Amino acid sequence: MLSERLVSELNRQINYELYSAYLYTAMETYFLDRGLTGFANFFKVQTQEELAQRVFTVPAPLAPTAQ
User: Fold this and answer.
1) Total of domains in the chain
2) Who's near 65: CB < 8 A, 6+ residues apart?
3) Which of 2, 15, 33, 63 has its CA 20 to 30 A from that of 42?
4) Positions of E strands within 1-67
5) Domain for residue 39, yes or no?
6) Residue 63: inside a domain, yes or no?
7) The model scores a pTM over 0.85
8) Domain assignment present for 65
């Protein structure tokens, strides 16, 4: 089973990836509002990459075990 420290670090990594995805989405919207579709598309792709990474790091709910 996974140690509490490992679960904590995995959760921290997932939070970083979600934060990045939200930030990239905000930047995409900013550039779309200004008609800069090339920049907007770049950040859309970055968002998709962050969310795809999250899928690979979250196979199932995790719970630490006592050892």
Assistant:
1) 1
2) 1, 2, 3
3) 15
4) none
5) yes
6) no
7) no
8) no
